[in-house]
Amino acid sequence: MIEEIQKKAETQFRDLIKLLEDDLKGVKTGRAKPSLIEDLQVEAYQSKMALKELASISAPDPHSLIISPWDKTILESIAKGIAKAGINLNPIIDNELIRIQIPSLSEETRKDLVKLVNQKLESCRKMLRQIRNELKREIEGLKGEANISEDDLKIWLDELQKMIDETLDKIEDLGEVKEKELMTI
C-alpha cells in the first residue's frame, strides 16, 4: 500500500515540476527562443493547432525568430494567430517565412516579469502543499491497519517530507535560473 502512495507522490511531484518548467518557458526574457511561441494555438485547417505542429521555428540570432511553415498556404493564418495571441510580438511575412523581432526588455518590464515568475512559483508551492496534505491524509489513513505500526507511519511521513523538500528545492532552483535569465541584459 505504501509503495503505491510513494509512486503516486513521485509521479505527482515530477508532473508538478514539468508543469512549472513549461509555464516558465512562456515567460519571455528578451531573447529569441522557439519555446516562446512553439505551443501557441493557431487556426489552421478548420481547427486549432500548436505552432510547432505547423512549422519549423528557429532563432538565428538573440533578437529574432524565423517561422517556416511546411504548408505555405497557412502563412497568413500563422501570422494572424501570433498577432492575436496577446504576447506583444509582431510577425512579418517575408516571402515564404515569417520573421519576428523580439524587442529588448526595459528594466521595469524585467522587474514585472520577475514578479510574474514569483507568482508562478507561489502557485506551484501552493499545489505542492495541496499534494502533500492529500498524501499525508492517505498515509495517516493507514493507521490501525494490520502490520502497520506508529513507527512505520512516522518513517513514511518523514520520507514524504524529504520528497517534498527535494521538490521544493527544484522549484526554487527553477525560479532562480529564470530570474537570473530575466535580469541579465
TrEMBL record:
Keyword Protein biosynthesis belongs to the record: yes
Keyword Coiled coil attributed: yes
Record key words, sorted: Coiled coil, Cytoplasm, Protein biosynthesis
GO cellular component: cytoplasm
Domain Ribosome recycling factor per the UniProt entry, residue ranges: 20-183
Gene3D superfamilies given in the database record: 3.30.1360.40, Ribosome-recycling factor
Broad class of the protein's primary localization: cytoplasm
Any GO BP annotation: translational termination
Pfam families, per database record: RRF
A single GO molecular function term of this UniProt record: ribosomal large subunit binding
Coiled-coil region(s): 114-177
UniProt-annotated location(s): Cytoplasm
Family from the record: Belongs to the RRF family.
Role, per record: Responsible for the release of ribosomes from messenger RNA at the termination of protein biosynthesis. May increase the efficiency of translation by recycling ribosomes from one round of translation to another.
Protein name: Ribosome-recycling factor
Native species: Candidatus Beckwithbacteria bacterium CG10_big_fil_rev_8_21_14_0_10_34_10
Biological classification of the source: Bacteria, Candidatus Beckwithiibacteriota
